[in-house]
Design brief:
The complex is a heterodimer.
Chain A (H helix, E strand, L loop, with lengths): L1 E10 L3 H10 L5 E4 L16 E3 L2 H6 L10 H11 L6 H20 L6 E3 L2 E3 L2 H14 L4 E4 L2 E9 L2 E9 L5 E11 L20 H9 L3 E2 L4 E8 L17 E3 L12 H9 L2 H15 L9 E4 L5 H10 L4 E2 L2 E2 L1 H8 L4 E10 L2 E3 L11 E3 L4 E2 L10 H22 L10 H13 L6 H15 L3 E2 L1 H18 L13 H25 L8 E2 L4 E3 H4 L1 E7 L4 E7 L10 E3 H14 L5
Parallel strand pairs in A: 1-2, 1-9, 2-6, 9-18, 17-19, 20-21
Antiparallel strand pairs in A: 3-5, 4-5, 7-8, 8-9, 10-17, 10-23, 11-16, 12-13, 13-16, 14-15, 22-25, 23-24
Helix pairs in contact in A: 1-5, 1-11, 3-4, 4-11, 6-15, 7-8, 7-17, 13-14, 13-15, 14-15
Chain B lengths: L4 E8 L9 E8 L5 H12 L18 E4 L2 E4 L9 E4 L5
Parallel strand pairs in B: 1-5
Antiparallel strand pairs in B: 1-2, 3-4, 3-5
């Protein structure tokens, strides 16, 4: 067994983890561990990517934005977008941290392609490259360790003092003892049969935090991106048609998007509100039996005049997007082909509960980026890139300073030998369940029953099925017995994290008997501000999940009425568009 | 490749010295597939001991770099063809 000691252990090497490591290294020694590709892992490389800040900050940085816009005006909009469920302390940290983050990234070589309202447009690859460049300049203060499958956190007196994992290449276990631990592990995309996330996003941080006893919040809130390509297999999951204009048709060929309110139409067509509005409309068609053979809807560009098509082709560099070349497919689209698309799990508003210093409810444990919950409330419209940068900086700073004050690493009380034995049990078990079979069952169930549109009876079924799945995970037999390069073994570790993440999500979704933001209940189609202007917080009580409610902290006037969900969206649109600096 | 057809892929099996034997697998090809799709199919349905690395699936992160037909390529950006030779464990 390999023993490691460091001041600050950062888990995850997407944008949040990289940013946290950079900041923590100003005060302390850092180990940055990642199971995916170092500095290119997680959702960051796939980001669009816009990095948002308020107009005044962008104007000061020399970008053409509205100098009369303020962090406060932006914060107000974020809370409207989040249906009032946001943790306003996190919102304040986010809007004030945004401008400095963009300034830093530009100094580190970020390439800004253009600007938009409250945003600079760049690419996820450029964000990662800038952060990696800066990280390299930190020298040996940061040790990078990739291909590390982290299993669980190490505890001491209820506080977190490290983690344990195994090296995927060698199969050897590593103990990481640390004064402070930062989770930056992203969402639980892969728990959904259809998702738009990279392969390694399996709720590892949420699962580990839950098992360690940390609080999680707003777990029912999941954003689905619409218009995600279902086929052919090589392009499945691409956001390509999310960025192009087109018509959505059901199986009868009917265009089903209808905006009764012009302000809602404007939100849908000019902001990331399109995620909520398009996904809901598409899934209604599918659930009504008007879906395509693959379970989505059709996306057509046949109506576009040829000169518009030509201009789009030029704008998109001959139909190239990320690494994909779509020119063959686009030629067929030009001839009238409609492709099959569907909403895909894309962003998780809920996660590990943190305060404005990115501290979790456990001593020694911090979290940053998408694995956290509370900032965006019930609906994220503003940029997740900004979230990962701001929270990465805050977590790195707080953890680095705290570690610098500590003399030594507390001894873990966790029984490491027992954890290792439990991790090896699936390899030693000969007649057990197949991880792939359980994984597929989880993914289908999550997409159908804890998906875009929910109802009580489906959520009830999901909660029971997930409880069963959580028990079944402990009976998995990994058929591949070697320890080195054993994908099946890694998937077993990931499966438990995915099952627990979805279970907490389903429990919260069942508990929230209203609709709010991305959480849409067919059986409760109202925003119930009398009863539900509160977070659902979950933690493990040792034997299972335990839920409690906590009122949203806010200084704004809280509406107390019960509003039909569709009316609440119109009201949000009116409030956002009445602000001259709004989007 | 619009209709279902069967393709044969040859995948190097894992061994500690990196010199494992190539093993042939047949898989149905429904629409255009890349090497990563083939590895996923084989791992999930035919032989779970076949392991590989992957991350973004969109040709950005470089995580699925491996040897394909003797060349270092991204599995997620390399189209499948009958008889293709895939060595997921040799990355340079």
């Amino acid at each position: 067994m390999n023993q490691n000691e460091t001041d600050v252990l950062v888990i995850g090497s997407g944008g949040a983890g990289l940013r946290a490591a950079i900041e923590a290294s100003k005060h302390a020694s850092v180990q940055l561990i990642s199971k995916g590709p170092m500095g290119r892992g997680g959702a960051t490389v796939l980001a669009g990517a816009d990095i948002m800040a308020d107009g005044r900050s962008l104007h000061k940085l020399g970008y053409p934005d509205d100098p009369s816009d303020t962090p406060e005006a932006w914060a107000r909009d974020i809370v409207i977008e989040g249906f009032g469920l946001n943790d306003e302390n996190l919102v304040e940290a986010y809007v004030h941290g945004a401008g400095p983050e963009i300034a830093d990234l530009v100094e580190w070589g970020l390439s800004v392609r253009k600007t938009f309202n409250r945003a600079v447009i760049t690419s996820g690859a450029s964000i990662c490259a800038s952060l990696r460049r800066r990280l390299t300049a930190c020298g040996d203060k940061v040790e990078l360790i990739d291909r590390m499958m982290v299993i669980d956190l190490l505890l001491s007196d209820g506080g977190v003092v490290g983690a344990i994992g195994f090296d995927i290449a060698s199969g050897e276990f590593h103990v990481f003892r640390a004064k402070r631990v930062i989770l930056a592990t992203g969402g639980w995309h892969q728990a959904y049969a259809f998702n738009a996330g990279p392969d390694e996003l399996t709720g590892d941080g949420q699962g580990m935090a839950y098992r360690a006893g940390a609080e999680l919040v707003d777990m029912e809130m999941v954003t689905f991106a619409p218009n995600i390509l279902l086929a052919p297999p090589k392009h499945r999951g691409s956001l390509w048609f999310y960025v192009l204009p087109g018509a959505l048709l059901n199986a009868n060929g009917d265009a089903f998007l209808a905006w009764e309110d012009p302000k809602v139409a404007k939100l849908a067509l000019t902001s990331e509100w399109n995620k909520l509005l398009f996904s809901k409309a598409a899934m209604r068609e599918v659930r009504a039996g008007r879906g395509t053979p693959l379970g989505g809807v059709y996306f057509s560009m046949k109506h576009l005049p040829t000169n518009i098509f030509d201009a789009l082709e030029e704008e998109h560099k001959g139909w190239r997007f990320q690494g994909d070349d779509f020119s063959d497919l686009m030629n067929r689209m030009r001839d009238g082909l409609a492709v099959e698309v569907a909403p895909a799990a894309e962003y998780f508003e809920g996660g590990i509960r943190i305060n404005e210093r990115c501290e979790s409810s456990l001593e020694g444990l911090y979290a940053a980026g998408e694995c956290t919950g509370g900032l965006f409330g019930a609906n994220r419209v503003s940029a997740a890139t900004t979230e990962m940068l701001v929270e990465g900086t805050i977590a790195g700073d707080a953890a680095g300073r705290a570690a610098a004050e500590m003399d030594s690493i507390p001894d873990p009380s966790t029984n490491v030998e027992k954890l290792i034995a439990a991790s090896l049990a699936p390899l030693e078990r000969s007649n057990g369940l197949s991880v792939r079979e359980l994984r597929t069952r989880l993914q289908e169930m999550a997409y159908q029953k804890v998906g875009v549109i929910r109802n009580g009876s489906q959520l009830d079924e999901a909660v029971s099925a997930l409880e069963e799945l959580e028990a079944e995970v402990e009976k998995v037999s990994v058929r591949t017995k070697r320890r080195r390069e054993n994908l099946e073994w890694c998937e077993t570790i990931e499966l438990r994290n995915m099952v627990q993440s979805v279970r907490l999500s389903a429990l919260s979704a069942l508990e929230r008997t209203e609709s709010r933001g991305v959480h849409m209940r067919e059986d409760y189609p109202v925003v119930d501000n009398r009863r539900w202007r509160k977070h659902i917080v979950i933690r493990s009580d040792g034997s299972g999940p335990s839920l409690f409610h906590e009122p949203v902290r806010t200084e704004a006037e809280v509406p107390s009425e019960v509003i039909p969900y569709e009316v609440a969206i119109v009201q949000a649109a009116e409030a956002l568009l009445s602000d001259p600096t709004g989007e | 490749m619009t209709k279902t057809q069967t393709l044969e892929v040859r995948i190097r099996m894992y061994s500690d010295n990196g010199q494992g034997e190539f093993k042939a697998f047949s898989l149905p090809c429904e629409g255009e597939m890349n090497v990563l799709n083939a590895l996923e199919y084989v791992h999930a349905r035919l032989d779970p001991s076949v392991s590989y690395r992957s991350s973004c699936r969109r040709g950005v992160c470089g995580g699925c770099t491996m040897t394909i037909d003797g060349k270092i390529l991204l599995a997620c950006m390399t189209d499948l063809h009958d008889g293709i030779e895939i060595d997921p464990y040799t990355v340079e």
